[in-house]
Q: What sequence folds into this?
């Protein structure tokens, strides 16, 4: 074979492969700009969206943990900076508040034949987003260490505290517990979980008036405080990356972490086989003698920008349909608790599934929940450091929320 | 200089300043006097993978209509400035009336986000600025007395903290002071206390932030002073030596007065920079123990639900703060300038 035939063959092969990809995505033109959170499962989805790139279709992808802070500004622009956002039940609300995502009913009807009914997020009767995975914070434990101290698998926070005390007493670890307790969004989320576990509700019925400064709120805060006493003193700086690193370094034996971290903790990177083989994921614990797990259920899904052109919106929707087709599960079944048809549960999914089947509540999708969440995250740290009583911390959070809600027009 | 030439030189920068500095400030001031429209909410059913729930949602069409009519929102005058997130007029009055002692009043005051941030910002500014001046001058003197061969590498080394991006510099240090990090672990061994954590105590976090601030800004003072040292008149120094002045006296009576204008310059820049302290708080994840005015603006703007009006009010208060800080220095410079002209 001379050089010419060789290169002709190579070019032919490339052409053939691109046309194959074309055939699978079945998009002719358009451009797809995607914004989303960053973790292994979403990376897998993004990689499959990228397969749709061709000469006529631009694909650009921005996955970042800061997506929640970018999305409103980026989608307010006209035309929008991103045509599709990977979002979740918390982050979708600010987008809907501003009317930045479009109803998807017509696209679902035309191209959504592979979707389950439960994947469609309907608000006021209209499909506003498509969910594709479930997530929740739940228990991770080290089977070898629990066995060593002779403690059963904890199913409540009270049992977690007893187990942590046993590990401390046995001299194995001084600080056996960790959770995502960084001041800000993470700490706010811990309170939301605990408060719902105690059966609390955040707002006076049917209004935006906060209702957290009560005995339930104080119980929830005290439980968090007791837990943090078994956590490394740096706990107010722990985000998901920090707790995962602690786990993989074998510094902790009990943790409440996101289910979506499960696959990267259970893989063979970043840790020893001793730690990985003894890591078990279990449902979220209950608290205060209630049956309900003290956690919130989240879905991750996608929404399409209202300010994207119809062509780009359609291309993005079809690219996402390609990404979420059963081919996704062939390579990435273990990366998440997929809501996609044909998903087979794996050990990394047990925590989320158990939490859901034990009756955990979904994270509230109220337009003003984000403001309360931020107010909680900013004001509860003082209590956890012992600088003020629980009532004061809750009163501060309520006052901060009221100021914000008044400015945003939710309260008078 | 003829007015025409002057205008020719100044025109482009003036235009840029109006476009990128003056107009945004006007817009920020305007926004700080407004809040958003009342939200029109509707009761709806929301369904998803975890079932259906009744909840509220915003009627975006109705809200859009309100916004078109009045794009800025509702005018509220100074309300944003006086609310709990800023000057907290009601809360401060209440604290003043109910607190029995100054101590109790201060505790209540420090519980308000704006005053808490202001306290750290001012403490940081007035600690770091003098330390930067002293340290920068000391390094400059030291380098100036080195043999010529060593000066180049030393200058480069001393400038490194300024070359490193502030956020990266603070992150590197953040990992080093971690309880598992090289500095954190060694401190635990040194003080023989396994629970010692620089991140867990408010005092130690403040100390860390200020050490970082000095480390980061000292090279700026150093390089300015070093340049200034090259212009100190040698004849005066030699004359002083003949008169029997020792090196301390030469510095005190010749070098320092000669460099006074530079000291004013560095002080001005440092006061402005330090009053806007921000990156280290993010880098060190120090928000539990220390917040600054810039950090409050950041959280307002980069939460999931952005609060432009609140951020605008804090921004205006920051501008006023910088102006107040700089006034004494500027008045002094103005007097000196007038004296020299006469």
A:
């Amino acid at each position: 074979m001379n050089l010419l035939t060789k290169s002709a063959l190579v070019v032919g092969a490339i052409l053939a492969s691109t046309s194959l990809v074309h055939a699978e995505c079945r998009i002719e033109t358009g451009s797809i700009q995607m914004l989303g959170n960053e973790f292994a499962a979403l990376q897998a989805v993004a990689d499959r969206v990228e397969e749709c790139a061709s000469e006529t279709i631009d694909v650009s992808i921005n996955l970042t943990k800061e997506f929640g802070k970018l999305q409103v500004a980026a989608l307010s622009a006209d035309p929008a900076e991103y045509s599709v956002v990977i979002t979740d039940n918390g982050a979708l609300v600010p987008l809907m508040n501003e009317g930045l995502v479009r109803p998807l009913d017509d696209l679902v009807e035309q191209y959504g034949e592979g979707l389950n009914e439960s994947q469609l997020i309907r608000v006021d009767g209209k499909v506003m987003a498509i969910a594709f995975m479930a997530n929740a914070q739940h228990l991770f434990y080290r089977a070898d260490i629990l066995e060593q101290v002779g403690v059963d698998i904890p199913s409540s926070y009270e049992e977690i505290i007893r187990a942590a005390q046993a590990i401390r007493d046995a001299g194995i670890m001084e600080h056996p517990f960790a959770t995502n307790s960084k001041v800000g969004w993470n700490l706010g989320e811990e309170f939301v979980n605990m408060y719902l576990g105690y059966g609390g509700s955040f707002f006076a019925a049917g209004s935006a008036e906060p209702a957290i400064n009560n005995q339930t709120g104080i119980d929830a805060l005290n439980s968090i405080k007791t837990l943090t006493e078994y956590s490394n003193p740096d706990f107010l700086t722990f985000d998901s990356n920090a707790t995962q690193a602690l786990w993989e370094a074998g510094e902790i034996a009990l943790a409440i972490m996101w289910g979506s971290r499960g696959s990267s903790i259970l893989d063979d990177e970043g840790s020893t086989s001793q730690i990985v083989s003894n890591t078990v994921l279990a449902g979220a614990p209950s608290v205060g003698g209630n049956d309900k797990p003290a956690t919130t259920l989240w879905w991750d899904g996608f929404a399409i920008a209202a300010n994207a052109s119809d062509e780009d919106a359609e291309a993005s929707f079809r690219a996402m349909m390609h990404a979420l087709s059963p081919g996704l599960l062939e390579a990435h079944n273990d990366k998440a608790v997929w809501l996609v048809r044909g998903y087979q549960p794996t050990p990394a999914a047990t925590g989320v599934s158990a939490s859901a089947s034990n009756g955990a509540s979904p994270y509230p999708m109220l337009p003003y929940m984000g403001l309360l969440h931020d107010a909680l995250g900013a004001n509860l740290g003082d209590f956890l450091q012992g600088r003020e009583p629980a009532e004061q911390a809750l009163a501060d959070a309520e006052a901060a929320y009221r100021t914000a809600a008044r400015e945003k027009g939710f309260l008078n | 200089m003829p007015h025409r030439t002057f205008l020719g030189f100044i025109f482009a920068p003036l235009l840029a300043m109006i476009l990128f500095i003056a107009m945004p400030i006007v817009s920020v001031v305007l926004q700080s006097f407004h809040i958003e429209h009342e939200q029109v909410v509707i009761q709806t059913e929301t369904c998803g993978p975890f079932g259906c729930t009744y909840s509220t949602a915003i009627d975006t069409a109705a809200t859009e209509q309100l916004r078109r009519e009045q794009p800025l929102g509702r005018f509220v005058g100074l309300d944003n400035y006086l609310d709990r997130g800023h000057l907290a007029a009601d809360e401060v009055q209440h604290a003043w009336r109910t607190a029995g002692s100054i101590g109790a009043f201060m505790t209540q005051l420090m519980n308000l986000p704006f005053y808490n941030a202001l306290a750290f910002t001012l403490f940081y500014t007035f600690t770091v600025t003098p330390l930067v001046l002293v340290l920068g001058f000391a390094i400059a003197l030291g380098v100036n007395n080195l043999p010529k061969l060593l000066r180049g590498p030393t200058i480069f080394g001393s400038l490194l903290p300024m070359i490193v991006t502030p956020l990266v510099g603070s992150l590197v240090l953040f990992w080093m002071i971690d309880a598992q990090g090289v500095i954190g672990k060694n401190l635990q061994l040194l003080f023989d206390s396994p629970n010692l954590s620089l991140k867990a105590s408010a005092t130690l976090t403040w100390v860390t932030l200020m050490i970082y601030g000095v480390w980061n800004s000292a090279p700026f003072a150093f390089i300015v002073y070093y340049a200034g040292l090259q212009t100190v008149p040698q004849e005066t120094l030699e004359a002083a030596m003949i008169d029997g002045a020792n090196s301390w006296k030469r510095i005190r009576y010749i070098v320092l007065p000669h460099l006074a204008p530079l000291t004013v310059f560095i002080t001005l820049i440092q006061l402005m920079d330090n009053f806007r302290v921000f990156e280290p708080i993010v880098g060190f994840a120090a928000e539990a123990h220390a917040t600054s005015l810039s950090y409050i603006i950041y959280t307002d703007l980069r939460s999931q639900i952005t609060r432009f009006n609140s951020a605008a009010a804090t921004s205006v208060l920051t501008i006023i703060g910088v102006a107040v800080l700089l006034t004494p220095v500027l008045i002094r410079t103005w007097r000196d300038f007038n004296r020299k002209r006469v």
